[in-house]
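User: Here's a chain of 293 residues. Predict its fold as tokens.
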Amino acid sequence: ALAAGKHVLCEKPFARDLAQAREMLRAADDAGVVHLLGTEFRFAPGQALLTRAVRSGMIGEPRFMFFALQLPTLDDPAAEMPAWWDDAAQGGGWLGAHGTHVIDQVRTTVGEITRVSAALETLSPRPMTADDTYTVQFETAEGATGLLHSSCAAGGQFVVATKVTGTTGSAWAQGDEVWVDTGAGPTQLPPADDLPAVAPVPPPSELLSTTYDMWHSTGMDLAPYTRLYAVMRDRILGYEISDDPVAGTFADGVANQAVVDAVRASSADRGWTEVAGPVAGPVVGPVAGPVAG
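Assistant: Prediction complete.
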């Protein structure tokens, strides 16, 4: 597509490894086209407002970020998934499918990840070579640390939490809501006018047949993706666009892939692993004005 001079929005997992990711970025830059990354949740109201709150200094300097998500999906050995998704050699697995979203959220919220200590596991009873569970400790260039854990094969209750603690307080997301506590008790931030919460629109039921399809059954990613494609349209047409939230590009795909590769290496070695760099291009835009609260 790039060789044909076409603008490209690439889904994640972006690439099989960092070398391939860098090759893709070079090709996109050489083609001189608009290239974006499918990290649509940068435009989800909860994630965007949490990022805005942290980067505005509302909780001081970020010190620790915690993310947890557990789903029971692959606890069922009969769950229907694409063949590539079960195959590590083809880029399958939960780290690439979901972890890249979270890695991108860390980078845009508290800064570039510089090293990791990680474990990848396969908890599902199904035959697969890819991971379905990841646990990642990380450090950033700005001195923050954090813990990322998620599994799509942990049976039982649904678990979700996203929280950032800074030098003067904490902020956390509850769906589209964002709350902060700087010492006076939890306070909900008002919604952002430019990122209104939109009711999910489920896709037509005839499009949902496999377990893999059902991950998208709520339609929660439709509104964020609509905003992402609007940015792509406006960039193609040369219109002025907001830089908050800033859309991810292939440069972010490379940066995210560098962390993914480091996580895989750390899991294999059971030790701390440095993230390859430097990262090409800017990844975070400035905060557009103060956040009310």
